[in-house]
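Tutorial, part two.
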Amino acid sequence: MPRDAADLHVERWRDHWVLDEPFDDAVEAAAVRLMRVVRWFDDTTKEAVAQVGLQDFEYATLHALMIRDTPGKASPGDLAEATHTSNAGMTGRLDAMERKGWLKRTPSPGDRRRVDVEATRAGVDIWRRAMHLRGAAENQLADVLSPRELATLNRLLKKLTLHIESATP
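Running the prediction step on this input gives:
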């Protein structure tokens, strides 16, 4: 199999004099490869988002709105929390996105002091277009693996994520 960037990275840094402790080649290569795959997913998501005419923050807001237990509905505070945005920052986002017709804010039926955010048909449509492009890129990457290899990769990644999730409060 040809060498990749992780192989070159490990070769470059193995036993380098600036390192005060050696590293495990296999662990280092796996970490570099995982980071490269994550970067690829980020890059292809940015390309998909730009291609449909969304900015990153607009996509992040629509995505947070759509993947909820109640798809397409949330409070501004819930969206701010989901996107790691301040409440004031979320208000600005929602203002701009409402002007573009991608969402609407309405008084909450249970408490008229609260506001609910709801995706409009136009918001759902543009989100779906971005998701379609993003999904095509994900499928393109997965297609280099056989079904058995993909199942093995998923099993191993699940083992890693379960470990992370159990160690993270």
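The mean pLDDT is 93. In part three we will examine how such features are distributed along the chain.
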